[in-house]
């Protein structure tokens, strides 16, 4: 279920060693063409255009089920409900364990195709945040998404995988941390989809790279709106009338996810510094597989 590739498991991070000056001179004189032949080009330009199209689409403030049925029916949907509905659409269908195919290895083309599909699906979910879509300029909602999508993905996949399939299908290079600090607390809380959405929204913006003060202010306001809507959700749709202890635990999960994300960022820096992928990548934020 969590399809991730860890480039550090099969390749050691290179280290600089002392070299014979003559050998170094010979290597530096090699034609640049040989390097170009080795370089893989990974272009996300088409994906970027599709994401911008998704973010430009205006969603209705109310939605009506075609048959008049369903959990939401013909009612006004606030942002929390929009995002929960988007999460349900994103996850459907949930396969049985027997239907899941485990991949040992995948070539770069398959990984690239998978990444494109996955990034678009999370972008579609993100577009359900109507307050952000309406109040942020395109460059800022795009930057907010691209810096947060991978951490949001990891949390959502862990929550879904653990709930429906258990520990045996969970795999990731940060496995122990995710199991002990994220998955086990998740299993104890038995999160609702609304609570998963709450956590995903609060992961947004943990990386503030190139986000303007105005964007951060709008994001802060949006999180306050979601918190108010969570209050109404708890009071009107659950038995958790005294829910403060759950919110504290949810925020602890969020802080754990963002802490792990920052830890992983250090490994990613090494990957880019030593050019482990041997690839020319148009948008490194989208080429994140672990």
UniProtKB/TrEMBL annotation:
SUPFAM superfamilies assigned to the protein according to its UniProt record, in alphabetical order: Nuclear receptor ligand-binding domain (SSF48508)
Domain NR LBD: 79-290
Superkingdom in the source lineage: Eukaryota
Keywords from the named record: Receptor, Transcription, Transcription regulation
Signal peptide positions (record): none
Biased composition annotated in UniProt, kind: Basic and acidic residues: 19-35
Alphabetical list of InterPro entries matching this protein: C.elegans_Orphan_NR, NHR-like_dom_sf, Nucl_hrmn_rcpt_lig-bd
Pfam families in the record: Hormone_recep (PF00104)
Gene3D superfamilies, per the entry: Retinoid X Receptor
Matches recorded under PROSITE patterns: NR_LBD
Region (Disordered): 1-35
PANTHER family, A to Z: NR LBD DOMAIN-CONTAINING PROTEIN (PTHR45680:SF4), NUCLEAR HORMONE RECEPTOR FAMILY (PTHR45680)
Protein name according to UniProt: NR LBD domain-containing protein
Organism: Caenorhabditis remanei (Caenorhabditis vulgaris)
């Amino acid at each position: 279920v969590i399809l991730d590739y860890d480039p550090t498991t099969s390749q050691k991070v290179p280290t600089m060693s002392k070299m014979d000056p003559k050998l170094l001179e010979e290597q530096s004189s090699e034609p640049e063409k040989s390097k170009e032949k080795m370089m893989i080009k990974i272009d996300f330009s088409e994906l970027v255009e599709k994401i911008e199209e998704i973010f430009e689409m205006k969603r209705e403030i109310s939605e009506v089920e075609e048959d008049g049925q369903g959990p939401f029916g013909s009612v006004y949907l606030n942002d929390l409900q929009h995002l929960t509905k988007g999460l349900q659409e994103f996850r459907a269908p949930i396969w049985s364990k027997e239907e899941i195919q485990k991949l040992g290895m995948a070539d770069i083309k398959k990984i690239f195709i998978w990444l494109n599909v996955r990034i678009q699906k999370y972008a579609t979910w993100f577009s359900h945040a109507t307050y952000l879509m309406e109040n942020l300029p395109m460059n800022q909602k795009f930057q907010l998404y691209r810096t947060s999508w991978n951490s949001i993905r990891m949390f959502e996949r862990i929550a879904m995988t653990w709930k429906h399939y258990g520990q045996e299908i969970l795999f990731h290079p940060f496995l122990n941390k995710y199991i002990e600090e994220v998955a086990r607390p998740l299993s104890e809380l038995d999160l609702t989809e609304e609570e998963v959405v709450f956590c995903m929204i609060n992961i947004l913006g943990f990386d503030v790279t190139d986000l303007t003060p105005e964007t951060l202010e709008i994001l802060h306001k949006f999180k306050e709106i979601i918190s108010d809507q969570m209050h109404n959700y708890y009071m009107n749709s659950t038995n958790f009338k005294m829910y403060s202890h759950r919110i504290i635990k949810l925020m602890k999960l969020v802080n754990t996810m963002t802490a792990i994300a920052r830890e992983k960022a250090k490994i990613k820096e090494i990957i880019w510094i030593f050019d482990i992928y041997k690839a020319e990548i148009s948008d490194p934020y989208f080429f994140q597989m672990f």
